[in-house]
TrEMBL record:
It comes from the Bacteria. This is DinB family protein. The lineage of its organism: Bacteria, Bacillati, Actinomycetota, Actinomycetes, Micrococcales. InterPro entries: DinB/YfiT-like, MST-like. Gene3D superfamilies: dinb family like domain (1.20.120.450).
Amino acid sequence: MPFFTPSVTSEADAAFTYLTQQCTQLKLTALDLTDEQARSTPTASGLSISGLIVHGAQVVNNWLIQVKEPTREVGEDDYRTVNEKLGLTAMFDGSALPDLDITEAVAIFDEVIDGIEDARAAVDDAGTDLGTEVPMPYNPWMPNDFTMTVRWILWHLATEIARHAGHADIIRESIDGAIAYQLNAQADGEPWPPESMD
């Protein structure tokens, strides 16, 4: 069951492994949902599982451009191009609903999860130090008083996706009562509850 992150051997291994694991957890919140359920907002929040999965896909996809090419100045056109390749034509903040059914949204997120391994390979092949400074993107919400590095991007991504996986856990439990342990077991074809808990 992938609920726990596998053992890691280095900081870079940990950063990529935790990011992959948290993306997988977010994706699993959609397991066996109908499109209507995935688009529903059963909590006080305006967030849906569909919206969170597409938002997560865009966030990871966009930041990984900089991880793969840390010294490159990445602009809005770069983000637009890489998102359009995935079939995403607008930016989503998690509360907007994409014009995709949940199967399409999950397929896009699967591509992004595969892209994490591509970024890991790029870092390994180039011998990139996680402390490598990267150009600061222009965003009004970015602080002006810190230095951005590859390390910061990877850990920022892992924590942002973990936060959204938690949002999605609450939404999923509100839809049908399913919890993360159960969804992981189902994804692996294991019984729920585990036989040892009967």
